[in-house]
Amino acid sequence: MDITIHSSFLPHDDAEAALAFYRDALGFELRKDVGYNGLRWLTVGPVSQPGTSIVLHPPAADPGITEEERRTIVEMMAKGTYASLLLATEDLDGTFERVQATDAEVVQEPTDQPYGVRDCAFRDPAGNMVRIQQVR
Question: Which of 13, 48, 94, 109 has an alpha carbon 20 to 30 Å from 122's alpha carbon atom?
């Protein structure tokens, strides 16, 4: 069986701020920008990986979600506990410097973890945790 990751979903609460982070800070390309009923879905991804994308979607846009669930999602996003993403790079320190220079919210500077990974972390504008680890 040969299954690949095509798209993964992360919520956003400000399309322009999300685009600035994923395109301008991380260097991803914008592949789709779809609007519907005043909401926007942005598809972004690494230029070198055209088959792998992240869809940045309006939180709780699913009509099957209750108002209470919507409130919970918004609260969790505000706390930064709703969603996360793990990325990898061969140049962690250089990547950290470039992303930090964009005024992205730094959660953790590059650190050698006790479990053998060197990584750093940021929050995107919606509060999603974005960890970036060194490829070894």
Answer: 48
